[in-house]
Amino acid sequence: MAAHRRWLLMSFLFLEVILLEAAKILTISTLSASHYIVISRVSQVLHEGGHNVTKLLYESANIPDFRKEKPSYQVINWRPPEDQEKKFADLRHRLTEEITYGRSKHHTLLKIHQYFGDLCSQLLSRKDIMDFLKNENFDLVLLDSMDLCSLLIVEKLGKRFVSFLPFQFSYMDFGLPSAPLSYAPVYGSGLTDQMDFWGRVKNFLMFLDFSMKQREILSQYDSTIQEHFVEGSQPVLSDLLLKAELWFVNSDFALDFARPLFPNTVYVGGYWTNLFSQYPKTWRILSLSLETQVLSLWPWAL
């Protein structure tokens, strides 16, 4: 325990050194609701820490009141061309209705990602925005791992990035360590960690189904990748997740089943501990040196 505390202290002191010089940081927010809240809080805290923050924001018509705030850092708003905007708005409305009434959940999810894939293509086509982002030469990009378009933006910019995972580990394969199927149930299986033989068979079959569905989801971005990346250098979307310098996972042991973690995983707080609140705000957001390539667990509320 003492050794762990010493390691945390050394990491914290090293962090203070690397943060003495203000960095140019890009944050990307193309999703709404809690996804937007996380990126906005991160952007604000980093800005208050003296960093030069720029946020790329999709100005959707379906925006809650908190998006109307006037942040003190730079915000680049973008939206599709006027003739396309109504089409996207109508599609979003239909998809929202389908989700509300629970119609064909996976089929609806595919259409949602197809919608975001088309929206992403619109953004990547904005030469003015993409050229501006390239010319800014950011030191780091912070993104929401659920926002798959942001991975393509970062790949275009060729920058290092930090990824925030706003769901529990098992929601999707994000390139993080997988728990053995013998005791960690697949997301949505309805199983627990106490499985008999047939429970494990079901879990394995659910895993195969889960994997196929995930490939279908990622394939909704194929046309966008083919359109905006030259042949021979077209990225594989699932591989881009592996390039993250650092992962922040919004999870807690109370919300997920036990699973193996990387040796350099650091748990920095949760619902049942006050440890997290003892650190300064900057430490809460960027808790370790990027060179360590760690996975850091953090609670929902900053």
UniProtKB/TrEMBL annotation:
Task: Tell where it localizes.
Answer: Membrane
Q: Which GO terms describe its molecular function?
A: glucuronosyltransferase activity
Give the family per the record: Belongs to the UDP-glycosyltransferase family.
The EC code for this enzyme is 2.4.1.17
At the highest ranks, the source species' classification is: Eukaryota, Metazoa, Chordata, Craniata, Vertebrata
- Enzyme class, broadest EC rank: transferase
Reaction(s) this enzyme catalyzes, per UniProt: glucuronate acceptor + UDP-alpha-D-glucuronate = acceptor beta-D-glucuronoside + UDP + H(+)
Keyword entries, A-Z:
Glycoprotein, Glycosyltransferase, Membrane, Signal, Transferase, Transmembrane, Transmembrane helix
Q: What is this protein called?
A: glucuronosyltransferase
> What's the source species for this entry?
Mus musculus (Mouse)
**Membrane topology qualifier:** Single-pass membrane protein
Please give the chief subcellular localization of this protein: membrane
